[in-house]
Specification:
By secondary structure, the protein is of the alpha/beta class. It has four domains: 4-208, Rossmann fold (3-Layer(aba) Sandwich), CATH 3.40.50; 217-374, TPP-binding domain (Rossmann fold), CATH 3.40.50; 388-571, Rossmann fold (3-Layer(aba) Sandwich), CATH 3.40.50; 587-617, no CATH class. The protein has 24 helices and 23 strands. Helix 17 links the parallel strand 18 and strand 19 (431-434). Helix 3 (66-79) packs parallel to helix 5 and helix 10 (247-257) packs parallel to helix 14 (346-352). The longest helix has 22 residues, at 361-382.
């Protein structure tokens, strides 16, 4: 009979996590990098007690908001290329509810994050308890059930022995290349403290390895035949290339075949800006160069991408008769739009697809010439001088001054488009533009999580956050977190007076400016400017306001030299200075009937591009 140890459920969970490791590039690392926690009555007395005893192995970062804690955990996992994760713990009720958005972000981006959340008492003896939602016809239904739609693994621990099965299952899900995503464990307050005689083997040190699934030989052979018949092939490189560690293999495959490469938003920084086969970012927030070759291509090899609408231009970016090959570890993604699937790890699949094929020189020359034209546009777009301040100028200024290994973080609003289109990649894997869930508020919190990971690998580099004033007002409290934990950030707050990119969409569809810019909100009698500099300084940051891009450059140099978080504020124009080139069509719902002639005209113009839309599944 095996030896046992008597532990509470909470103690067993934490002890198990502390003994999980992973091998990364020949070095053993702890699988769980620690956690983010806000304690309340649903997690402090039992889980908090267990975490205290393992505070050295699993450092617990005190967040200011549960949603931002989840964002930070997601950014941490993205930095580590999904090979390590952090947990987030929240109390029963509103604390846990705040994690829903973060869980959705991790789910959309296929990122590992473990949520250890309080739940109501299993016995129901004290019901209804503080913050409990009551469903009169279903007493077992509660708030935590809401996470079922935004997690890859969900369980409610109803007995201490259950974690013997549930914890390994949750971790295996988070480490699975195809099914990776957030895992949720609901922890009833009484069950957390109940004891069980656990087998000691459960807590033995275990070193994990990420599975590499080899592609099917038949699928590979058919894909090679298709590629060899192509006259105008392109590769779409997605974020999965980096998660697979397949950047070198992608580069080698492209160089051997001479096939031009375009990048998705998640796949930015797969190739250096200067690589001759890097034709630029594709799609709605892309480049004229990438979209020109995509429209002309007869063969599209999609590697490690889920083909989101911003990549495909709502499926108008390609010729209707173009053939697709989907190289993806996930079957669901590999088969989209009638693609020929090559289901398997990107690294192994790219190696298997090697052949004697070479794309025609004329096609490669066309693609490279288009990239030259785009480079000239970007150079002019980011230049500053006698023109209004813009996002692009800020992007270009930072791009010219940052270290090649600095990490860039942006999300939602207009900045993902401006960073994606105008950022010139200096080193591999250095760009995090959160657009899988396009989630405002990720920027500063995600920067904090990325910086925690960065200090574990590259402590002498910086994490640079591009943030609009709208996102800053939504979620800024992790500036304080970064100062408290000495995880330095450089945050650029680019103030255009509200939600200017949505105002732009509003105007582009014929609508009047309404409730997006502060000056156009009908319930605001008189708008006034927020003193972002004073606000950031009040949270302990170095802070300054600059008037133009040239001054921003000098302020950025000071921020680089500083030893704590710096916030640089610059006003940008809400109407002028947007990147106007490089956009494909994007399907949005427009009114089919209206009394406004501008809206009617915009609707007809919008729908005129629908004839280019591919039909597929």
């Amino acid at each position: 009979m095996s030896e046992t140890v008597t532990l509470t459920t909470a103690q067993a969970i934490v002890r198990y996590l502390a003994n999980q490791f992973i091998m990364i590039d020949g070095q053993e690392q702890r699988l769980c990098g620690g956690g983010f926690g806000i304690f309340g009555h649903g997690n402090v007395t039992c889980l908090g007690e267990a975490l205290y005893d393992h505070r050295d192995e699993l450092p617990l970062y005190r967040g200011q908001n549960e949603q931002s804690m989840g964002f930070a955990a997601a950014a941490y996992a993205k930095y580590w290329l999904r090979r390590r994760f952090m947990f987030a713990t929240a109390s029963a009720g509103p604390g846990t509810a705040n994690l829903l958005t973060a869980s959705a972000l991790a789910h959309a981006n296929r990122l590992p994050m473990l949520m250890l959340c309080g739940d109501t008492f299993l016995t129901r003896l004290p019901d209804p308890v503080l913050q409990q939602l009551e469903h009169f016809g279903n007493p077992a239904l509660g708030l935590n059930d809401a996470f079922k739609s935004v997690t890859r693994y969900w369980d409610r621990i109803t007995h201490p022995a259950q974690i013997i099965q549930s914890l390994p299952a949750a971790i295996n899900t988070m480490l699975d290349p195809a099914d990776c995503g957030p895992a949720f464990l609901g922890l009833p307050q009484d069950v957390q403290g109940w004891t069980y005689d656990y087998p000691l083997e459960l807590f033995e040190k275990r070193t994990h390895h990420i599975r590499r699934q080899a592609p099917d030989a038949h699928e590979v052979a058919e894909a090679i035949k298709m590629i060899e018949q192509a006259q105008r092939p392109i590769i779409i490189a997605g974020g999965g290339v980096q998660y697979s560690g397949a950047v070198a293999d992608l580069t080698a495959f492209a160089e051997a075949t001479h096939i031009p490469v375009v990048e998705t938003i998640a796949g930015r920084a797969n190739l250096l800006d200067t690589h001759p086969l890097n034709i630029g970012p594709i799609g709605v927030t892309g480049s004229d160069s990438a979209n020109a070759v995509a429209e002309a291509a007869d063969m599209v090899i999609a590697v490690g991408t889920r083909l989101q609408d911003f990549t495909t231009g709502s499926w108008t970016a390609f010729a209707k008769d173009a053939k697709f090959i989907g190289v993806n570890v996930g079957r669901h993604d590999a088969m989209k739009h009638l693609s020929h699937p090559v289901v398997g790890d990107a690294k192994l699949a790219l190696q298997a697809l090697a052949s004697e094929y070479k794309a025609p020189d004329q096609w490669v020359g066309f693609a490279q010439n288009e990239r030259k034209k785009w480079n000239a546009y970007v150079a002019d777009n980011v230049a500053h001088g006698n023109r209004p301040n813009s996002y692009a100028q800020a992007v270009g200024t930072v791009n010219a001054l940052c270290d090649s290994r600095d990490r860039v973080v942006a999300a939602a609003g207009g900045l993902p488009a401006e960073v994606t289109a105008n950022w010139r990649t200096l080193d591999i894997g250095t760009v995090d533009v959160e657009f899988g869930f396009s989630c405002m508020g990720y920027e500063i919190a995600g920067g904090w999580g990325a910086r925690i990971a960065q200090t574990e690998l590259e402590p002498d580099k910086d994490t640079i956050v591009f943030c609009g004033d709208g996102s800053y007002l939504l979620m800024n409290s992790d500036l304080y977190s970064s100062v408290l934990t000495r995880k330095k950030l450089i945050v650029l707050v680019l103030d255009n007076g509200g939600f200017a990119v949505i105002n732009k969409l509003q105007n582009n569809t014929g609508n009047e400016s309404f409730n997006n810019l502060f000056t156009d909100a009908p319930t605001i009698p008189e708008a006034f400017a927020v003193d972002f500099e004073a606000h950031a300084a009040a949270m302990g940051c170095n802070a300054e306001t600059v008037s133009n891009a040239a001054d921003l450059g000098e302020a950025f140099k000071r921020a680089k030299a500083a030893d704590k978080t710096s916030v640089i504020v610059m006003k940008v124009d809400a109407y002028e200075g947007w990147t106007t080139e490089g956009h494909t069509w994007w399907e949005v719902g427009t009114p089919h009937t209206t009394q406004n002639p501008k809206v009617e005209a915009a609707h007809k113009d919008w729908e005129a591009s629908r004839e280019k839309q591919r039909r597929g599944v």
